[in-house]
Amino acid sequence: MGTRHGFVLAALSALGAITACGDNTEPDELRQGGDATVVDRSEFAFTHPMPTLDDTQLELHNLGRGPFAFHWTPPQLGPLFNHDACLACHAKNGRGLSQIGFDVFGSQALVRASMPTGEPAVPGGQVPVPELGLQLQDHAVTGLGEVNARVSWTDVPVDLADGTIVMVRSPTLVVTRANGDPLPVGVQLSYRQAPPLVGMALLEAIPDDDIRAREDPDDADGDGISGRANLAWDTQSASPQLGRFGHKANVTRLVEQVAGAFANDMGLTNLIFPEADGVTRDVNDQQLGDTRFHVATLGVPAAANRDAAAARGRELFDELGCASCHVSTYVTRSDTDIPQLAGQRIHPYTDLLLHDLGDGLADGRPDFLATGSEWRTPPLWGVGLAQVVNPDATFLHDGRARTLAEAILWHGGEAAPAREAFRSASVTERDALLAFLGTL
Is pLDDT of 53 > 90? Predict the structure, then answer.
């Protein structure tokens, strides 16, 4: 029996178990990716193709794994880069580790950079740092990279209402040019880790109108939540479009995300980001398309069945205010380029909008419409598997949170009431909420 067909049968079998899981859980919520759901909560949970692919699509999915997993070398690689392979920052398609260093096999984070004034790289975008651009590369094919980048951590105690003390950590980023000189005065830096990859094409398939319907930039309803969409530059259409991907929703479509990673992380020119002559490409058009298809057709792991504590945690997720931004359910468009993605009822737990999360998480670097304290609500599907896939995985945009409890306690701004509700909750209620998140 082939792997794909095995997972189809496993999924069908598990769906029967999910339906019979009891009264505490809506059965549909456990099928987080709709028909793209796979039933595996092991360290390989993020690595499976959608179970509904036909044989031709499965072959294309596997073909796209090639350029994704390939360790690129000169003359394609570089001349400046952060890493030499997609999987180097997305091991098992999970999140990157929060560290920066010279070792080409150790760096799984990056630094975005810009200047506060000047000519933006694209309309509405950020101003490149002279000689360095909008992303700092710490490796080079020959000689030294552009910069030396190091991050250190400071523990900060947070008192919970019951007297428990939780230590959260705050990052300090130090970046200098490779020769030791400082960066230009006023440079804006943002330290970021690589996000997980599952479900990205399903997020792309959420109708624009459904996302915009949740915007409330002036908090007209008075609930303290004022989410708004980012408008990012779409290179192929040469126009601003709704941003969906990236920590600040600064990327419009999955193909732009893949192409941008090739160009910025590995120095690989391609269809969307070609050489200055507009023609020469390190990654050919088929390789780019195949890689995009591979990522687009990754299955989403089914949520775990919920015991009584996790079922109570699901209720608390709503009661404490988490669901105000981490919206559970959407139905995807009917006009998707991959037919199996159309009309799917999915549960990503995100609104894909920007929210002000306060000074504690602010990077001080705007990104299109996003201010220095605004971040896109990250999807939560698969978050309970993050440290199963990689025991060293951490959370939030820069990986500062070692646990989900720490991540919640870093929420400020619009999310401050939800954070305070968690901080003030009983041990039983906090544990229940964390148990629920662990099932995602």
Answer: yes
